[in-house]
Design goal:
Elements: E1 20-26, E2 29-35, E3 55-60, H1 63-71, H2 84-89, H3 99-102, E4 108-115, E5 125-129, E6 135-142, E7 147-148, H4 151-165, E8 172-182, E9 194-203, E10 211-213, H5 224-232, H6 238-256, E11 267-271, E12 280-287, E13 290-297, E14 307-311, H7 334-338, H8 373-383, H9 388-397, E15 407-410, E16 414-417, H10 418-435
Parallel strand pairs: 3-10, 3-13, 4-8
Antiparallel strand pairs: 1-2, 4-5, 5-6, 6-7, 6-9, 8-9, 11-14, 12-13, 15-16
Helix pairs in contact: 1-5, 5-6, 6-8, 9-10
Length: 442
Amino acid sequence: MTRSAGRSRPGGPEMLSGIDARCNVNSGAVWPRLVISAAMVAVGFTWTAAGDAPTVSAILTSSQSRANYLAHARIWKDPGVVSPEDVLDGPSGVFPYTFAEATSDEGIACTFAKRGKDLGGATVKFLCTTGNGQTLRIKYWNPDREQGNREVFAMVAATRLMWALGFDTLPALPLNVRCDRCPENPMTGEGEPATRHYLGELQAFPPGGPLILSGDDRNQGWSWRELDDAISALPPGPGRIRQRTHYDALTLLGVFIQHGDRKAEQQALYCSASVNLAAGTTIPKADGDRQSILLLEGPTESSCAQSAAMIVDVGATFGGAGRTSSDKTAKMDLDQWRHRPVFHKMTDGVCRGDLTVSYAARHDGEGDPVVSEDGRAFLLDQLHRLTPAHVRALFTAARVEDLGKRSIRTKAAGTKTATDEWVDVFQDKVRQIEAQRCRPAS
């Protein structure tokens, strides 16, 4: 069976600048040679104490080795018991604030530091600095004007859902922001400075281990077609069956939340295990008060015992996807999400998810992806872990009541809150997956 097909990474304004990779031919392998100018992978916000031991920020390897890491990457892991309260609070120990602190009436106070226009990408955001020196990269929404960045809501909902189901992503924290000396437009920097209040979203960055790269682009990530092909190239056996099942489940979850902005840099391949420094050459790099190491992996060495495939940016979700990932329709739009079915009508006996991917992702984004029965059943098992209380906590954490209208009048049930409506649509999509049957993986 043929599997059908169809760059703004979160983080600070500084990215990986200066990995100068030259290509050598070594036994047929394209191998990067490092000219020492490699900067550490920057973080979008930091509260790690100065003087910490140096960490490996990236592993630079051959394209063949990276393909092997990708084929064997961990796609899913059992999240254990996750309660509705856990879904509301999010992963513990990730942020310097708890959910309760971040979303209290007082919220988080900070001073405007840099306009979003200078941070790269088109999403609405800004940098601000707290009283204890933490720099926060904040996506924001103005509830009074009902305008700003709808990713404030979508990122929280999508990352909480993925985490609760066992799929790897970067946690996001909703917060109330009091921005001192903030211009009227923090994205452009225009307008008189004043104290302004926003709904915000803060995302952890970078992943919990060094990126695995085969060139000088720290945003290399991975494409859905690339991961699909890498798994298909594995030898038959339990390993390939596991990877195919988990990949197809992740693919179906992407359809479920309408994750259509599937450019390669929206994903990341990283090492989730300890790095064997003896497997290559280390290049130290200072970044202010912190130290980082880039590991140039030896041509016959493997420095990472377990790679992991992560989806980094899921801000354009819970809408209708689309070629342009429109702010108005692709990001947290209830009507658009409600009217997109999970599956296309089956005409050839093959299950295809109903997903239009962005122009930037093209065929590598695998639009209208094929889903196997093993993948469908596996995702359904994970979704069945979630009770109505879990789903309500998900959309409560995302603060859907602050998107606009406080309630939505329906023909059948009178007045429902926005949270009620989002929960209903979520459960309807679960029922669509329950009702479908697909072909086994080939």
